[in-house]
Amino acid sequence: ALDNVNLELFRGKCLAVLGENGAGKTTLCEILEGLLPPSSGKVLFDGEPISSQGKAYLDRIGVMLQETNLYKRYTARESLELFSSFYQKPTDIDGIIDLLGLADVQGSKLMHMSGGQRQRVYLACALVGQPDILFLDEPTSSLDPAFRQRVCKAIQKLKAQGICLLLTPHDLAEATRLAGQVLFPHRGKASHGG
Asked: Is residue 135 helix, strand or coil?
């Protein structure tokens, strides 16, 4: 799915990956997230192959998949507490709830939330481990315009805190607004823009 892709991600920077279906976006993200081993080449984090870092690498990344399914009988807060237990140094749950505007629904079960509210809970779960790298697959899909703006502001704040972000947004306008660089994979090859 990918052919000779070479890129670098830096702290406090955001890279958007934008392309048509089948272009290699998901494969690229899954390789960088450590979910799929590359058939050739390697992925380095702090100069070391991620394949040799195991859980230490997973503790330093946050992932929000395009289609996330959490246990829907948990409340938003219970979901965050569960994810918090996966990390050695989780962040303050109340701070994430405030950042993403979840205070009013933190006691609501996921099964009773709108798609946009659940999307914000999924983003909060990706942030709870205080990641150095955050992978966000269409983070603003299902959000109304007001909360889309709030999530965009949160992403800018995360960049200012030194978190490296890799986004796969759903449109070019959002990609250029949030990212310093845009990668356009096409038939497994990648070119940079912006």
From this structure: strand
Q: What share of the chain is helix, strand, coil (3-state, %, to 5)?
A: 40, 20, 45
Please say whether the dihedral angle defined by the alpha carbons of residues 51, 55, 61 and 64, taken in this order, is positive or negative.
Answer: positive
Residue range 133-162: average pLDDT? 83
pTM of the model: 0.86
User: CA-to-CA distance for 142 and 136, rounded, in angstroms?
Assistant: 14
Q: How many residues does the chain have?
A: 194
Q: How far apart are CA 159 and CA 34, in angstroms?
A: 22
Q: How confident is the model at residue 112 (pLDDT cuts 50, 70, 90)?
A: very high
State residue 106 phi and psi, 5-degree precision: -60, -25
What's the rounded Cα separation, in Å, for the pair 61 and 97?
19
How far, CA to CA in Å, does 24 sit from each of 2, 48, 69, 180, 186?
6, 24, 23, 20, 7
Give the model confidence (pLDDT) of 33-72 as tens digits. 998 888 888 899 999 999 999 889 999 999 987 666 778 8
Helical (H) or strand (E) element with 96: helix 93-99
The DSSP 8-state label assigned to residue 6 in this structure reads: -
- 56 membership: H or E segment, kind and range: helix 55-58
CB 76 within 8 A of CB 116: no
Name the percent of the chain lying above pLDDT 70. Answer: 92
Q: Which amino acid is present at 92?
A: D
